């Protein structure tokens, strides 16, 4: 029986639709394959070519986050407010604190804070660090302070902590050199995330102990991966940055490369992002050690190389960690975290 003209036209149209879908699927697969191979090539060219650690840490219950749209880069014309790749640089005036805080009215952020107070640094700095953190760090959110110490009995009592906030002590073995303390903390932070922090926290921030909070250090800082622009270099050209310049180090950054100089005194983000960062940084440190090389600024040199290869999703301006020795700058309207005076000769138990 002959098909009607209408039925023939319908069959032809159906065949065209199926053919277009098949062609589109093949092209999508080809593009996906090409992208995958490109990603592998880039990874192998980078000294941090260890695979990124894919985890489901943040998939169990997505935490509240602060969208980039809440930052207004045009609010500050006197400073740089965006990275070349579009990440916001957080300055006073580029966000509205009340608006940010309203995002978290129904669910508070769950934040881990790590701080290493080893040797004489514990007695000198830890009490003030924790006391000022209670006044200014993620106020109103659920925070656990993880204090890494060599002797738990010397940890100061700063109770009562605010509701939803707690202090956990992590005892670690004494290191022979302060340089090893600085570098090995990357492994310890990664281990903490995998063993403990990822189960009960959305975000983790890592701080040096020889500094103290002076003003709001709030949820505007939350992001996938967060790096801090070092106070002494925020207004300097890249050629002034003290990157590792020896090619034999994994932390090497060639002249002319790099975007910012990042300060290892503060970094953080979602647990999965910080896990990737600490594992990648420590892999570079380990490769240098195996080759008998030590980067100029130890873990900070490796952190700068890592963030050059894996650009952070958010940058904190130096108001989030300012050195008063610089003096006041017109760019700094508000100091949120301040360096303590450096007393290396008195506090470091070895100099190598």
Automatic annotation (TrEMBL):
<feature type="binding site">
    <location>
        <position position="300"/>
    </location>
    <ligand>
        <name>an alpha-L-fucosyl-(1-&gt;2)-beta-D-galactosyl derivative</name>
    </ligand>
</feature>
<feature type="active site" description="Nucleophile">
    <location>
        <position position="300"/>
    </location>
</feature>
<feature type="binding site">
    <location>
        <position position="242"/>
    </location>
    <ligand>
        <name>an alpha-L-fucosyl-(1-&gt;2)-beta-D-galactosyl derivative</name>
    </ligand>
</feature>
<feature type="binding site">
    <location>
        <position position="210"/>
    </location>
    <ligand>
        <name>Mn(2+)</name>
    </ligand>
</feature>
<keyword id="KW-0464">Manganese</keyword>
<keyword id="KW-0735">Signal-anchor</keyword>
<comment type="similarity">
    <text>Belongs to the glycosyltransferase 6 family.</text>
</comment>
<dbReference type="GO" id="GO:0046872">
    <property type="term" value="F:metal ion binding"/>
</dbReference>
<feature type="binding site">
    <location>
        <position position="208"/>
    </location>
    <ligand>
        <name>Mn(2+)</name>
    </ligand>
</feature>
<protein>
    <submittedName>
        <fullName>N-acetyllactosaminide alpha-1,3-galactosyltransferase-like</fullName>
    </submittedName>
</protein>
<dbReference type="GO" id="GO:0031982">
    <property type="term" value="C:vesicle"/>
</dbReference>
<dbReference type="GO" id="GO:0016020">
    <property type="term" value="C:membrane"/>
</dbReference>
<dbReference type="GO" id="GO:0005975">
    <property type="term" value="P:carbohydrate metabolic process"/>
</dbReference>
<keyword id="KW-0472">Membrane</keyword>
<feature type="binding site">
    <location>
        <position position="121"/>
    </location>
    <ligand>
        <name>UDP-N-acetyl-alpha-D-galactosamine</name>
    </ligand>
</feature>
<dbReference type="InterPro" id="IPR005076">
    <property type="entry name" value="Glyco_trans_6"/>
</dbReference>
<keyword id="KW-0479">Metal-binding</keyword>
<keyword id="KW-0328">Glycosyltransferase</keyword>
<keyword id="KW-0812">Transmembrane</keyword>
<dbReference type="GO" id="GO:0005794">
    <property type="term" value="C:Golgi apparatus"/>
</dbReference>
<feature type="binding site">
    <location>
        <position position="323"/>
    </location>
    <ligand>
        <name>an alpha-L-fucosyl-(1-&gt;2)-beta-D-galactosyl derivative</name>
    </ligand>
</feature>
<dbReference type="InterPro" id="IPR029044">
    <property type="entry name" value="Nucleotide-diphossugar_trans"/>
</dbReference>
<feature type="transmembrane region" description="Helical">
    <location>
        <begin position="12"/>
        <end position="30"/>
    </location>
</feature>
<keyword id="KW-0808">Transferase</keyword>
<dbReference type="GO" id="GO:0016758">
    <property type="term" value="F:hexosyltransferase activity"/>
</dbReference>
<feature type="binding site">
    <location>
        <begin position="208"/>
        <end position="210"/>
    </location>
    <ligand>
        <name>UDP-N-acetyl-alpha-D-galactosamine</name>
    </ligand>
</feature>
<keyword id="KW-1133">Transmembrane helix</keyword>
<dbReference type="Pfam" id="PF03414">
    <property type="entry name" value="Glyco_transf_6"/>
</dbReference>
């Amino acid at each position: 029986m002959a098909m009607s003209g209408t039925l023939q036209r319908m069959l032809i149209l159906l065949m065209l639709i199926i053919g277009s879908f098949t062609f589109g699927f093949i092209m999508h697969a080809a593009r996906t394959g090409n992208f995958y191979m490109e990603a592998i090539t880039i990874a192998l060219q980078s000294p941090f070519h260890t695979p990124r650690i894919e985890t489901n840490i943040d998939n169990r219950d997505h935490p509240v986050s602060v969208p980039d749209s809440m930052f207004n880069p045009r609010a500050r014309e006197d400073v740089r407010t965006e990275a070349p790749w579009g990440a916001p640089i957080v300055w006073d005036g580029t966000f509205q604190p009340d608006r940010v805080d309203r995002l978290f009215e129904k669910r508070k952020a769950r934040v881990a804070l790590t701080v290493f107070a080893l040797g004489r640094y514990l007695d000198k700095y830890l009490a003030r660090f924790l006391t000022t953190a209670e006044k200014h760090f993620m106020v109103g959110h659920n925070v656990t302070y993880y204090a890494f110490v060599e002797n738990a009995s010397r940890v100061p009592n700063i109770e009562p902590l605010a509701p939803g906030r707690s202090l956990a002590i992590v005892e670690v073995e004494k290191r022979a050199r302060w340089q090893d303390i600085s570098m090995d903390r990357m492994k310890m932070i990664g281990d903490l995330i995998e063993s403990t922090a990822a189960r009960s926290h959305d975000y983790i921030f890592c701080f040096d102990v020889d500094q103290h909070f002076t003003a709001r250090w709030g949820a505007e800082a939350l992001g996938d991966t967060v790096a801090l622009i070092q106070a002494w270099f925020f207004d300097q050209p890249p050629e002034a940055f003290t990157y590792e310049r020896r090619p034999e180090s994994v932390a090497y950054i060639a002249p002319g490369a790099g975007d910012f100089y990042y300060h290892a005194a503060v970094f953080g983000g979602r647990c999965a992002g910080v896990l990737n960062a600490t594992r990648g940084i420590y892999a570079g440190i380990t490769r240098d050690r195996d080759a008998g090389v030590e980067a100029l600024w130890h873990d900070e040199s490796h952190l700068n190389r890592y963030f050059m290869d894996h650009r952070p999703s958010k940058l904190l301006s130096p108001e989030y960690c300012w050195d008063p020795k610089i003096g006041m700058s017109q760019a700094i309207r508000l100091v949120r975290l301040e360096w303590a005076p450096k007393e290396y000769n008195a506090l470091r138990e070895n100099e190598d």
